[in-house]
Amino acid sequence: DRAVNGVIDRFRNKFGDIGVPVFDTKHERAKSPMNTGGAYRDLALHYGWALGRLFSGEAYAGRPSGDGGAGQEGFRPPLPARAIIMEEDVLVAPDFFPYFAALVPLLDSGDGLMAASAFNDNGKEGIVGDPERLVRSDFFPGLGWMVTRAVWDEIGSKWPGRYWDDWLRRPEVRRGRQFVRPEVSRTFHIGVKGGASFNWGGAHLSAMHLNDRPVRWEDKDLSYLDAERFRSSYYGRVLGANVADAEGAIAAAKVSDVRIEYRSFQEYENFARRFRLYDEEKGGVLRSGYENIVDFRPTEAALGNNTEKRIGKYLVFLSPPLEVVRKNMDDGKKMGREEFSQSLALNPENRNIGDLSGFQR
């Protein structure tokens, strides 16, 4: 497409002006009955191919586009320590790259993290609001994410031939590790026709709120995302929330944090639908959840206040019973992720996503 190529050329020149080389690499695959398995298979194969070439340095073969001293014949930059993975059909917030840059030290340190994402699966208009709030989650969101070389070295040789995102969410792959995500998404998906996201729910994706209030991430102290500090702070807030039923939760959230208890996955589904949250799990983990707890923030408009303020002060938590929450907090071994999920029929083995083992590269 000539228009698309024109945009690429303009940005290639912009990067060249500041000495950043742009390398072109194309995934050539011959059509055959073995590689026409639909969008899910094509995406998984392409992601695995691209990440493999990037981290191995194969993507830097040949001459890069751009100048600034870097566009010399034979120039090869150092192998990347990490990579940001982007789809071509997403819009990004103005602070997308500063957001990821601020998370580099935390992600590089390990600290029980597998990746960082720019997306909140439950980040719809009306139920999110604080652009500065970041959380740890057991759920891999995708849609703009950063991964380290160390993680790729671990999973690259096992990369599946389809459903790559669900594969990353499986307990045996995640191994208890978590992800950092924002309350307010830094990506907005616009390609809802024809691709893998078509069946996932175009209406859901189109309701997301893309951050329009840039944050100076370089000025922010993100040490609260340390695993133990975050855990202690989060559970403290959950336990301090006032218990409410679904009928009264939004009104109660005008004056305090609120907690709604669910005692079965079916009950969670009902609550999630009521509050416009995504009503499913993957790999035994609720979408956007932290140890089986999902939160959202009723905005001032959702609270019925006649104001331009977008941020509501208080959160609503959908959580397991209090005794389970307390046990999770006190045990230190993080009981309850897989164990409690299974008791709620959140067993990943029950999900109909197909046998991934037969579709390795």
UniProtKB/TrEMBL annotation:
Any one annotated GO CC term: Golgi membrane
Main location: Golgi
Reactions it catalyzes: N(4)-(alpha-D-Man-(1->3)-[alpha-D-Man-(1->3)-[alpha-D-Man-(1->6)]-alpha-D-Man-(1->6)]-beta-D-Man-(1->4)-beta-D-GlcNAc-(1->4)-beta-D-GlcNAc)-L-asparaginyl-[protein] (N-glucan mannose isomer 5A1,2) + UDP-N-acetyl-alpha-D-glucosamine = N(4)-{beta-D-GlcNAc-(1->2)-alpha-D-Man-(1->3)-[alpha-D-Man-(1->3)-[alpha-D-Man-(1->6)]-alpha-D-Man-(1->6)]-beta-D-Man-(1->4)-beta-D-GlcNAc-(1->4)-beta-D-GlcNAc}-L-asparaginyl-[protein] + UDP + H(+)
Listed pathway(s): Protein modification; protein glycosylation
Topological category with respect to the lipid bilayer: Single-pass type II membrane protein
Keyword tags: Glycosyltransferase, Golgi apparatus, Manganese, Membrane, Metal-binding, Signal-anchor, Transferase, Transmembrane, Transmembrane helix
Pfam families documented for this protein: GNT-I (PF03071)
Gene Ontology terms, MF aspect: alpha-1,3-mannosylglycoprotein 2-beta-N-acetylglucosaminyltransferase activity; metal ion binding
Known cofactor(s): Mn(2+)
EC top class, as a word: transferase
EC numbers: 2.4.1.101
InterPro entries: Glyco_trans_13 (IPR004139), Glycosyltransferase_13 (IPR052261), Nucleotide-diphossugar_trans (IPR029044)
Location in the cell: Golgi apparatus membrane
Claim: RNA-binding is one of the keywords in the record: no
Family the entry assigns: Belongs to the glycosyltransferase 13 family.
Protein name per Swiss-Prot or TrEMBL: alpha-1,3-mannosyl-glycoprotein 2-beta-N-acetylglucosaminyltransferase
Organism: Pseudictyota dubia
